Amino acid sequence: EKGGWSSFMAKEVAEEPEAVANTILGRVKDGQVVIPELDGMDELFAGVQRIIIVACGTASYAGQVGKYAIEQWARIPVDVELAHEFRYRDPIVGPETLVVSISQSGETMDTLMAVKEAARLGAKTLSICNTQGATIPRESDAIVYTHAGPEVAVASTKAFVAQITALYLLALHVGRIRGTVSPAEAARSIHELEALPEKIRWILENEQEHIEQLAHWMADTRSVLFLGRHVGFPIALEGALKLKELSYIHAEGFAAGELKHGPIALIEPGQPVFVMVPSPRGAATLHAKVVSNIEEIRARGARVIAIAEEGDVAVLPFADEVLRIPLAGPIFEPILAVVPLHIFAMGLANAKGLDVDQPRNLAKSVTVE
Ligand code: M6R
């Protein structure tokens, strides 16, 4: 039920705070992450040597964000692969590999087949899924459900933030078992994680109108680029995918560091570019590098829309628009930075009079290969 909202997507974006909060619920005990569904798996987590994340579309971008958290806190090397690519390349997988699948529907055929292939090769499989009792979790050795609630709109939004949340919880859970994250750091991280729902709410209350207005002004835009670095890179990819699928315009996401290796040639006067600005509280060089990317594209006439933390004044001289997100620190920023991009893609599709819940040519779950 849309319950008064203009679309399921509008309702689901508004539910992003609860999606994060409900995914954390019941998984924090005495200042530590404890995932009851993973009881009895400590030995496996202690011994695992490699994690491969398999997923498609938006879920694969959640996986790319999760890679940073798992490597940081659990110190296990992570590869993220599109499920359809994994399956057809004779992957090197064995009992020391944990294959983590991510799927909102739990019915995506490509992801299901990748999970089956991983199991056939002797890997343990863990499913991060939003749909209770779906096929992928049933075929997996372990399940961590995201509790985003049913997602109806074809474009995945609240499931995406819940998937990242689940990956952070998994990273902290495994890090505790392996002793790779100190209790103090875990407690600090949990505190940050628990603060996210309120911060998403802040964006919805304070920036939504501004972003919708911007989308309205940009209704005739033919192409939009997205730049990000570190955890901001998969968010740039997600911003581009949302815009393609909802408003049928050319959109592409790049790693900001790649600019001078090719994409900067695309910049001509008036080209809109969204830039995810890393938290200035993280690695200073990362922030400075992205600010200098902004200067470079601005000098070539790009119209820069910066997504930046509140109080980050370094971007002001070069950005045409600044979309503010609350302070969250480097690793947590993606869950906030993606919210304006969801609102923007929805706003642009609305401005063009398109059906945001059911874009052309797409299905909510892709149950064919
Ligand atoms: O149900 P799944 O999470 O397995 O779906 C994966 C993709 O098909 C899905 O995320 C798709 O990319 C969305 N339409 C993106 O908004």
Automatic annotation (TrEMBL):
KW Cytoplasm (keyword) present: yes
Localisation: Cytoplasm
Source organism: Microbacterium sediminis
Its job: Catalyzes the first step in hexosamine metabolism, converting fructose-6P into glucosamine-6P using glutamine as a nitrogen source.
Subunit structure of this chain's protein: Homodimer.
EC assignment: 2.6.1.16
Positions of the catalytic residues: 364
Domain of life: Bacteria
Protein name: Glutamine--fructose-6-phosphate aminotransferase [isomerizing]
Keyword vocabulary terms for this entry: Aminotransferase, Cytoplasm, Glutamine amidotransferase, Repeat, Transferase
Complete-protein stretch covered: 249 to 617 of 617
Top enzyme category: transferase
